[in-house]
From TrEMBL:
InterPro entries: DUF474. This is Integral membrane protein. The chain crosses the membrane at residues 12-32, 53-73, 93-111, 123-144. Keywords: Membrane, Transmembrane, Transmembrane helix.
Length: 146
């Protein structure tokens, strides 16, 4: 797969993932507070089911394409502290791994029935902040140097 196609696939999957989390954190969670508890629960169940079915393919595509892109920079990543590009790329990968771990935690908490509204809000906000960090680093990697 060409680098351009790999980058397009990665950016498209990232847009889907970030857009979904942004919608949940900034729009849905605030709007759902205005609904009656039964309606809120029903909306949460319906949207949660749909989000899980979409994320089942978005996440593997996002991370698979990300690995393919990182492979292109394996020489830089061999010693990430030797250059600003390598350092920022390593930080970006670290944030991406953290998001994946948090996503796995969400799946675990949901399957064990231990997910609470408070945990869900904190995890979603954390993932959103991590993604903003990744977006900044993705742009900064090729614009900043030291």
């Amino acid at each position: 797969m060409s680098y351009l196609l790999l980058k397009f696939v990665h950016l498209t999957a990232a847009a889907f993932f970030i857009g979904g989390v942004f919608f949940e954190v900034m729009i849905l969670s605030r709007s759902a507070r205005q609904l009656a508890p039964a309606s809120r629960e029903q909306l949460s169940n319906v949207l949660g089911t749909r989000a899980r079915s979409v994320m089942r393919w978005v996440i593997p595509v996002l991370y698979g394409a990300g690995l393919g892109l990182a492979w292109q920079y394996r020489a830089v990543l061999h010693n990430p502290l030797a250059s600003s590009l390598g350092t920022m790329m390593a930080l970006k990968i670290g944030l991406a791994v953290s998001i994946l771990v948090q996503f796995i935690c969400v799946v675990y908490l949901m399957r064990t029935g231990r997910m609470t509204a408070s945990r869900s809000r904190r995890l979603h906000l954390s993932v959103l902040l991590h993604m903003l960090g990744i977006l900044f680093l993705a742009k900064a990697m090729f614009l900043l140097s030291w």
